[in-house]
Task: structure prediction
Amino acid sequence: MYRTHTCGELRLENVGTTVTLAGWVQRIRKMGGMTFVDLRDRYGITQLVADANSAQAVADAVASLGREFVIQATGRVAERQSKNAKMDTGDIEILLDQVNVLNPSDIPPFTIEDVSDGGEELRARYRYLDLRRKPLKNALTLRHRMAHEVRNYLDAQGFMEIETPFLIKSTPEGARDFVVPSRMNPGEFYALPQSPQTFKQLLMVAGYDRYFQIVRCFRDEDLRADRQPEFTQIDCEMSFVEQEDVLNLFEGMMRHLFKTVVNADIANPIPRMSWYDAMDRYGSDKPDIRFGMEIHEVTPLVQGHGFSVFDSVEYVGAIAVPGAAAYTRKQTDELAEWVKRPQVGAKGLVYIKMNEDGSVKSSVDKFYTEDQLRAVAAEAGAAKGDLVLLLCGAKRKTQTMLGVLRIEMGNRLGLRDPKVFAPLWVVDFPLLEWDDETQRFYAMHHPFTAPKPEHMEWFNSNRKEDLEKVCANAYDFVLNGTELGGGSIRIHQADIQKRMFEVLGISSEEADYKFGFIINAFKFGAPPHGGLAFGFDRICALFGGQETIRDYIAFPKNNMGRDVMLDAPSAIDDTQMEELFLKSVAPEKK
Result:
């Protein structure tokens, strides 16, 4: 062994012991006749000391060191004269007897410190160096602990961890698939799984009644802070269960993770909210309930007063922003421009100021009396000092816009504390979404989600208005405005599954081609079953107090889906192209 201890292990009880450490040189400081070297490994930092009493060989070796040199150091543990309470090993230091350089290092392109001087792209190019920094080590340590505790909990609940294939059949019904050409089957392609959905259902048919997997999934979609082309799910399925069984068991898992990983207690039981309530009150199916500022409909109060913008729309909604009545004209004008951005999509903004002195001021006060404006503000839940913001248009679209505005105001007012955890189950989603452009229904979750048993009459109807009323036996786990997991009770009868494909406009031939294997499996005694999948990377990031998941993935991609360290994706040579029966076609110039 190159070491007797790690760089984060030694304490005062080790004083007088001769030890050998190995690691990377973090920094070197010379003070008079003494040289201090901070030696770092995965576990921490220990201070090494060479002074006037050190052998010449030690002094020469220390003089040759540079940042990120890999060294082996032997010496005696001593109590520090000047202790460092910020370091776990800050009470001790090592008086050096011997130093061996195991590998020198070039000067790194950025400082390997908690706060680095390297930009994001530079650090991504040298990700293996960035991973030496403490914030990333902490992130990956949290990820490891999370995976360990997930396995502990699910194993104790009788779940089996079973791997499923990565090379599968392409069945594009949601995001785009990543496809892989098959050399042995010319002109045919595998797809990388967007999730193990059909496999876990087949495992239920096979009798493995409690399955889980911490599994890689792949989706070719536009990226953002909480999305990567390859990501990890905690994928779970159970047989002979109803929705309540699934929610109770995985509520227990989340409570276990909060307690064991971040020592936090969360609401017990976790509150539940229907999709319809979430949209009406928060304008989002993943509401952040850490703060109020709920949406209120004020349509009847504002129509019929001569303001044509409100008179001509289906819906007018409002939120009351606490303490914001003091906003200046410049600030309200900026907000009015902000809501016109593509991420919101509003055409304009109306405001009502409930001033502290009791007066009322509005951008539309020439159309409304002061009493009428007060009535609108009261309906929105506003008090003195609050600013009421109103948007209008089609109902669901306007609620969504208000939801985005609500989150923006929550950020501006500092109401979204990352140290506060507010989990929520969202239930009773619509089973189907109608698309006007294609004039067909799409599954809101996926085509294997079961309708609510009490809605089967509507489900079997051919009337659009009946089908739009059908609720899914589905549920999402939401934390602080982020969907961390989702699932459903599945369809397990072949006739209901065929009906689902029919409603979605998938012909029997197409259904047999894409999903014939699972339809056939349902004919051989498929049990009632359901489950869910949690976004493992997202859980890690939120537990770590971050919005981006990149730091919690060892080797992530950038916003363009590129690995700048490997320079991937990249072209392949002509021989590989020929073996795979592929031909490269340059994109048309725009």
Notes: DSSP finds 18 helices and 22 strands in the chain.
